[in-house]
Amino acid sequence: MHLSPDEMIFWRHGFLKLNATIVFTWALMFALTAGSILVTRKLSTDLTRSRWQNLLEILVTGIVKQIEDIGLGDPKRYLGFLGTLFLFVAAANLCTIIPGYEPPTSSLSTTAALALCVFVAVPLFGIENQGIGGYLKSYAEPTVIMLPFNIISEISRTLALAVRLFGNMMSGAMIVGILLTITPFVFPIVMTALGLLTGMVQAYIFTVLAAVYIAAATRTQEPILEIAPRT
Amino acid sequence: MDSMTLIAVASISTAGLTIAVGSIGPALGEGKAVSTALSSLAQQPDAAATITRTLFVGLAMIESIAIYCFVISMILIFANPFWNHAIAQTTGK
Fold first, then answer.
1. In sequence order, what are the residues at sequence separation of 6 or more whose Cβ sits closer than 8 angstroms to the Cβ of residue A18?
2. What is the mean pLDDT of chain B?
3. Distance, in angstroms, between A27 CA and closest chain B CA?
């Protein structure tokens, strides 16, 4: 019984350790990148197109539409960042149906890294849109008294992003592992299906929250989703 | 009762209590959120997309509280630092 895939060591050389998290993360990144390159090598604009191009078109247009719905104007600017987040987390959570695979998102290191990306990207987008002064002024809204609380919320929501994804994925793997030891073989299958659903929902949530934070930082328009960020 | 037994008893009962108490609030909150979303869906079927998206994000927020409790109880049972320390002391002797 191990809590995270960090403890599965594949290869060790001195103080260098290759654990399952790194291996599966790189395998996923390779698969996603190679797949994208292979599909986009021969793009067609007429009516006949390959099924893979169709799949990617559905993905891209769907993500663009979701970003638009949240209230980010000019979704193409944020498509690269948000779409990559969604695709990576969704692929990592979906591949749990492969035996012997441990989702890298069930390790706190991966989720903390993803949350840090959001933590860095939000001010960058904000400064790009409003300038440094305008962005820093948004911390002192509605009054200056709220300044420390706004800074605290910035940090705590990043922590919440990381722990939410980690806790959901870890609990899924954990519950299946516990059930395998105490129940007959049929019941863990149901829980695995539930874990797949949870994983997809969490990927969606992660992306939507990142988009909401960016929308709040850029002030392109008042975000439709008014969520008080809290832990 | 030596220290190891004390640590074990405290960890296990606290883990159970954490899950039990920590699930009450999120359960009530999710029930209220879903019921409100359903009544607003019945009143405004056109705004289904916005309501559903907001509901899901809110549910994830609420659910993460329960997940925190779960993580803490898992840490208490499977990765308890005090327990590991006590084990290391007894085997080291």
1. A9, A10, A11, A12
2. 88
3. 27
